[in-house]
Amino acid sequence: MSDLESISSAYRTLLGVIEQVEPRIAQATRQELTDQRASLKLIASENYASLPVLATMGTWLSDKYAEGTVGHRFYAGCQNVDTVEAVAAEHARELFGAEYAYVQPHSGIDANLTAYWAILAHKVETPALAEFGAKGVAELSEADWETLRHRFGEQRLLGMSLDAGGHLTHGFRPNVSGKMFHQRSYGTDPNTELLDYDALAAQAREFRPLVIVAGYSAYPRRVNFAKMREIADEVGAVLMVDMAHFAGLVAGKVFTGDEDPVPFADVVTTTTHKSLRGPRGGMILATGEYAPSVDRGCPLVLGGPLSHVMAAKAVALAEARTAEFRTYAQNVADNAKALAEGLLRRDARLVTGGTDNHIVLLDVRNFGLTGRQAESALLESGIVTNRNSVPNDPNGAWYTTGIRLGTPALTSRGFTTSDMDEVAGMIVDVLRSTKPTTTSTGAPSKAKYTLPEQAREASLTAADTLLAAHPLYPGLDLS
Ligand SMILES: *Cc1c(COP(=O)(O)O)cnc(C)c1O
User: Fold this and answer.
1) N or C: which end of the chain has fewer CB within 10 A?
2) Which residues line ligand 1 (CB under 6 A)?
3) 121, 104 in Cβ contact below 8 A?
């Protein structure tokens, strides 16, 4: 039996076992593979992890409680979890050239929350403890503790605005980050739609934040982290970089020099499941100065680590250290460029006029559509994207004016630059054929539209052909 035949047979057996307990879950799991195989996935935050990464998550490592850190646990019997966590952290440090890596956060949001509180511990709590002559918070008098709690609440954070491409954890009010910090956001230049470092520096001088957060979810360009460091230094701020979206491009050495955040940031947070192609999870890298604070992620923010997921992070990070991964990361960027050029050649408008990372932000105004209409029309034509705000979006955050496209997932399936050009053609054909319906007052609807059957069918057929040429998990057969 080949490896893939035995893996297929193992998955069939496992799904059979699950089926005996709850058939609906076995069926949904099978169907998810079928659906993922059948969709042209351009969701910029999604990817396909390798079978070794997926397999690593499905084990009894999940059963162990291991609060604490390697060699210093609040539970007995953590020797194997120690190995898992130490190996994952070692790969992370060596891959990214970081002084310290913390692989316990369960998600990107957890990583950010842990990082914020670690920064507050280092910059606010530690000096306060010295001032009050206490070794730890438990020793503080009620009055001193109250003073310290107020100091936490007085701190300022400067992050990228949501509609310029920032993330909700960068100080957006509905998120806890916007409630725990006084927050202001920086945007992009209204003409170029690019980050305006001079405007950001002026804002930082005026606002004097404790933390400047760089990083994005929907900005189609690289960031100059050397400049970010200069700005942070000038105002005495901590520089935190959230590379959740582009960690794979850092790992794969597509972003080097000033575009690599690790040498410049005090703290770097990331997810592990986006362009990095690992299990769903989070991670923090830090300088030695911040390491002791981040290391207290449990009990600061987190409870027990997900040992099975830390194991899968170790496997994914080992994969990310290979030459194949570097090729993959370069292909992600090349494919994004090909997609952008394909769209531009067909007269589409892109935010910032193009891309130099893995994201393309398509402004659908000149098709007469909202982001919501474009997203739905593309979805029924076999192209999975998500609607997204553009800077100063006239349609707001629900209907939006943009479509965010990303290449990590299709690149994992082996899509090439010429495939991406074909995808660009399909997108433009569908959007040109889509017309908003008019409401009873004669105004165009923001949600409803019509799409001729012929255009939809043509796109679905083209998508099938492309997907068949680049199978997902080739050889994995559950039937
Ligand atoms: C996706 C993302 C996150 C959140 O990650 P989750 O794992 O969904 O919690 C945080 N920051 C940025 C910039 C992201 O893109």
Assistant:
1) C
2) 45, 107-109, 112, 167, 169, 215, 217, 242, 244-245, 271, 282
3) no
Cα(209)–Cα(236) distance, rounded to whole angstroms?
Answer: 8
Tokens of 421: 């050009």
Residue 444, pLDDT above cutoff 90: no
Quick one: 287 and 330 in the same domain? Answer: no
168 marked ligand binding residue: yes
The one-letter code for the residue type at 113 is L
Check if 337 is active-site.
Answer: no
Q: What is the mean pLDDT of residues 107-122?
A: 98
Q: What is the CATH number of the domain that holds 217?
A: 3.40.640.10
Q: Catalytic residue at 242?
A: yes
Q: Which of 189, 214, 186, 212 is nearest to 200 (CA)?
A: 186
4 among annotated binding-site residues: no
Residue whose pair of structure tokens reads 């992600």 in the numeric block: 332
80: containing domain: 61-320
Last residue of a domain, which of 287, 320, 353? 320
Q: Which residue has the higher pLDDT, 447 or 2?
A: 447
How far apart (Å, rounded) are the C-alpha atoms in residues 282 and 427?
32
Asked if residue 284 and residue 357 are part of one domain, the reply reads no
* Beta-sheet pairing, 156-160 with 182-186: parallel
Task: Tell me what pLDDT residue 454 has.
Answer: 97
Residues 412, 309 within the same domain: no
- DSSP 3-state assignment of 267? strand
Domain count, the chain: 2
Contact criterion met (CB below 8 Å) for 459 and 381: yes
pLDDT digits (tens, 9 = 90+) for 174-204: 999 999 999 999 999 999 999 999 999 999 9
Rounded Cα–Cα distance for residues 344 and 185 (Å): 30
